[in-house]
Amino acid sequence: MKVPGISFGPRFLKEALAGQDLGSAARFSDRKIAAVLAVFLATEQGAALLFTKRSPALGQHAGQISFPGGALEIQDADLQSAALREAGEEVGLGADELEILAPLPLQPVLEHWLIHPFAAWWARPRPLAPSPDEVEKIIISPLGELLSQHRRDCWQIPDPSHSCRYTISGELLWGATARITGRLLDRLLSRGLL
């Protein structure tokens, strides 16, 4: 995988993402719990992340750009299982196609939700079949494009709660997913992968 002349794969990503301060869920005990997957893959344009545009028919966050994922359900063994189940339901990614690299820092969303993100590697990308009830479209965004916007618009933001905004495939990425993306890019930059 290449991003501005730098080559890396799942082993290097796993090492770069290890040892992060994930935060504590204890102070958010009254919130609903969700889990999402930040899925990395290799494309002709270099390293990329997979996003979805949520269906306009959904009640919450309709039409927004997000990572595959959703609420923890009773049948889920744990948060990672919930994220993998949701990725299967939303875009047709099988758990056996993904390598979980690391948990990422918790992301509170307003007063209602606490998102538990996980980074994953998709080694053999193939065409996906998004669920039309949940996903309008799948967006694959090269890290190089995200990074150029991140360096220009987000690099010097002193307030970590401030949300960067990115434009990917003509769509606006903002809010919790943009914050998770920004933290992920910051981590990769700090580890010299980007």
- Overall shape: globular
Count up the domains. Answer: 1
N-C termini distance: 11 Å
Task: Detail the poorly predicted runs.
Answer: 1-7
Please outline the major beta sheet.
Answer: 8 strands, mixed
- Helices and strands: which structural class? alpha+beta
Q: What CATH architecture do you see?
A: Alpha-Beta Complex
Q: How is the quaternary structure best described? A: single chain
**Could you name the CATH homologous superfamily?**
Nucleoside Triphosphate Pyrophosphohydrolase
- What is the third-level CATH name, the topology? Nucleoside Triphosphate Pyrophosphohydrolase
Characterization of this structure:
The chain has 194 residues and is an alpha+beta fold. The chain has one domain (2-142): Nucleoside Triphosphate Pyrophosphohydrolase. Helix content is 25%, strand content 32%. It contains 4 helices and 12 strands; from the N terminus they run E-E-H-E-E-E-E-H-E-E-E-E-H-E-E-H. Strands 3, 4, 5, 6, 7, 8, 9 and 10 form an 8-stranded mixed beta sheet that branches. It has a two-stranded antiparallel sheet with strand order 1-2. Strands 11-12 form a two-stranded antiparallel ribbon. A hairpin with a 2-residue loop joins strand 3 and strand 4 (46-54). It is globular.
